Amino acid sequence: MTKYILQRFLTAIPVLIGILFVTFALARLLPGDPCVAMLGEKANEVTCAAFNARYGLDKPIPIQFAIYFRDVLRGDLGISFRYGRPVTDLIIERLPVTIELAFAAMFLAVLGGVTLGIISARKQNSLIDVATMVGATIGFSVPVFVLGLFLAYMFAIVLKDTPFSLPPSGRLSAGMAVPSLPATLGLEKGHRLYGVASFLGNLYLLNAILHGDMALFKDALRHLILPALALATIPMSIIARMTRSSLLEVIGQDYVRTARAKGLGERAVLFRHALRNALLPVVTIIGLSLGFLLSGAVLTETIFGFSGVGRILFDSITSRDYAPIQGFTLITAIGFLFLNLVVDILYGFLDPRIRLG
Fold it and tell me: Is the pTM of this model over 0.85?
């Protein structure tokens, strides 16, 4: 297993370099001038020449990439034109928002999708099965922005002043203070762990747990429910359909019939024998879905006022802000490679016939 993991890490290095170069080149080949996008009416030959010289945009693309790649190896992802801040600071600030939202949505998607898939497979061709699959089809078909606006309208307006009311936007209520994790740990800016502590501190649910602040936890959780539910609908529908089809295929195998012939109950046959092997394709779908969620959900973040990866990537692309595009793409690529590795390792635990060595 250790050898396999090391091999995967080594093969990931050229993949990351290739992704970084392609993103770097495509960002600069897109129509539009970053100087004009940033300076607007103030852009002229003199100001643009100074702008390009300041950010190294006056050099050929291969030389720019060589300089950028050297900086990346040093841990420097560049400076944002639009925000005037290091990209690492933007990642520490924005990535936790998307991570929290993505994992909350994935939790709902897996819990609901697997449960509905199992129920539907056990009640094949029944009214419950038909209703579940119709619901999954509708959930997959409804656009996120339509569902998001509908949920915000229902829970923030229709159910206002009821126990079921939920906030329609933002991560926290006005006036809610967030404790500083670096300050709690006694870390000053410049300490090697300051960035890690700041990153973890921007995960509000984790921050609240670490500080024992239940008021912050409840408020952050209430603000997270609607966007997570809107974002979870499509992967939940896919997982439900995949669980059902995979489980129905496994139930017809010889070893399942043998388990029944030995006198095992239907519940034991389903959960101890059939479900474990049926989860192999489901795990793949979960890994891919989580990777896409971590790459940013622009519409969901926009509707519910979340300033995450999707929002900043959209703003950076429209303003030709190269550094955040490259930095967040690199982080997303690393996340996808890590999730693929986790999925492959899970295969070995779910199916003993698979040997990773």
Answer: no
